[in-house]
Design a protein that fits this description.
The protein has 447 residues and is of the alpha/beta class. The chain is 27% helix and 21% strand. The protein has an eight-stranded parallel sheet with strand order 1-10-8-6-2-3-4-5, sandwiched between helices. α8 crosses α9, α9 runs parallel beside α10 and α15 packs antiparallel against α16. The N and C termini lie far apart (72 Å). Its EC number is 2.8.3.-.
């Protein structure tokens, strides 16, 4: 088959391609930095022709034109599986809804027909000599949603790195209905998050838990980046990578010689991930690099896969933790901040891993809008807060004041352990609340 001719036959303008969208359709925009602003802009032009188009995405890094052009949500209803900063701001204006997701289950939603997809709009590399386009930095659920879609439209962008697998990192020209030539703009750069002195203190505590040959998963944020920077400057050897998100700090660790993957039990020698977000340093590193392996999230985030590597060290952020051990990482009260993502997957998977540790990390305090110091370790979660990791699954909690291991502990033992890593100035009030809630006994000790 002449794949070049097939590709050229399917190549149309963005305006022509989005004509396939009908009122009431379910449209999926793709994921992370691989969301196409070109196709979004073309669909936004059709606002007055359409009603009730249900748009889904995963962490779209920009506010879509379809949303900005339709503040009454008459034409387009926008939903995100895991909020970006842009989605968070739209949610605050009632212009975006969160779709709940335990990340490793994502592909099954399409395979089982729970999430219909009339039109998939994705961003890809140009076809290679064999007629395959690459999904770039977002494997995740992309192939599954394209398999489920009635129509697949792909923006071709020459700036997209060709990310090697793994599995399901490509689509054949024959699997795509329309191609649109994009503007070839570079992928969106993830801005660096400032690292505080408290972040560095927490990172030092975490670094003590990492031994030669450990396998790493890092979440997003300043503190995991601080861990990565410290690892790059350490003398640790033969670290492995099995992570949800690949970020710039993994490049630093690899180039410093800390990552070889040679002691991994699964995917030996490979840096396994399901999506990547960062800067051009990361995107250039990924391009045609056989040390990196892109997989669907149903593989990378399945606890039964995660645990096959020994000594999994999984490092994730949280907004607050209560004295019962419940973790809220995705909402502040009822305000959606991000999403469940893969945090639950990795905390559970790390416990099943021989020698593994799942670390929920947070600064002990924050300053509220009135300038008052508040504890992130609370007697109970803020009303309306969403539990990301239930107390029965939570493993380790880390603040700048130390680390609490919660497995096997009763409610009073958990309260004691967590109060001992809360801010010293706020511990007495936490003890009073714990006592009132009948989770404190007189023999409890304070450090």
């Amino acid at each position: 088959m002449d794949y070049k001719s097939e590709y050229l036959r399917k190549l149309v303008t963005a305006d022509e391609a989005v004509k396939v969208v009908k009122s009431g359709d379910s449209v999926h925009y793709g994921e992370f930095v691989m969301v196409s602003h070109v196709l979004d802009a073309a669909l936004a032009k059709r606002k007055d022709e359409l009603e009730g188009v249900n748009i889904r995405t995963v962490t779209c890094p920009f506010p879509p034109q379809t949303v900005l052009n339709d503040p009454e949500r008459k034409h387009f209803i926008y939903n995100d599986w895991h909020f970006s900063g842009a989605s968070r701001k739209l949610h605050d204006k009632n212009l975006c809804n969160y779709s709940s997701l335990t990340y490793h289950e994502g592909p099954s939603f399409f395979e089982r027909g729970y999430v219909p997809v009339d039109v998939a709009m994705i961003k890809v590399t140009p076809p290679d000599q064999h007629g395959f386009v690459n999904l770039g930095t977002s494997n995740s659920i992309t192939h599954a949603l394209c398999d489920a879609a009635k129509v697949v439209i792909a923006e071709v962008n020459e700036s997209v790195p060709r990310c090697m697998g793994g599995s399901r990192e490509t689509l054949h020209v024959s699997e795509i209905d329309y191609f649109v030539q994009g503007d070839n703009k570079p992928l969106i750069q993830l801005p660096a998050t400032p690292i505080s002195e408290v972040d560095k203190t927490i990172a030092k505590i975490i670094l003590e838990q990492i031994n030669d040959g450990a396998c790493l998963q890092l979440g997003i944020g300043a503190m995991p980046n601080a861990v990565g920077a410290m690892i790059a400057q350490s003398d640790l050897k033969d670290l492995g990578v099995h992570t949800e998100m690949l970020v710039d700090s993994f490049v630093d660790m690899y180039e410093a010689g800390r990552i070889t993957g040679l002691r991994k039990q699964l995917d030996k020698g490979k840096m396994v991930y399901t999506f990547a977000m960062g800067t051009n340093k990361l995107y250039d590193f990924l391009n045609n690099n056989p040390v990196c392996a892109s997989y669907p999230v149903s593989y990378t985030n399945d606890p039964d896969t995660i645990c096959q590597n020994d000594n999994m060290i999984c490092i994730n952020n949280a907004i607050e933790v209560d004295l019962y051990g419940q973790v809220a990482s995705e909402s502040s009260g009822t305000r959606q901040i991000s999403g469940t993502g893969g945090q639950l997957d990795y905390i559970y998977g790390s416990y099943k891993s021989k020698g593994g540790k799942g670390l929920i990390c947070l600064t002990s305090t924050f300053v509220d809008k009135d300038g008052k110091l508040r504890s992130r370790i609370k007697p109970t979660l803020t009303p309306g807060a969403i539990v990301t990791v239930p107390r029965s699954i939570n493993y380790y909690v880390v603040t700048e004041y130390g680390m609490a291991m919660l497995k096997g502990k009763s409610t009073w033992q958990r309260a004691e352990a967590l109060i001992n890593i809360a801010h010293p100035d706020l511990r007495d009030e936490l003890i009073k609340e714990a006592d009132a809630n009948k989770i404190w006994i007189r023999s409890n000790k304070r450090s």
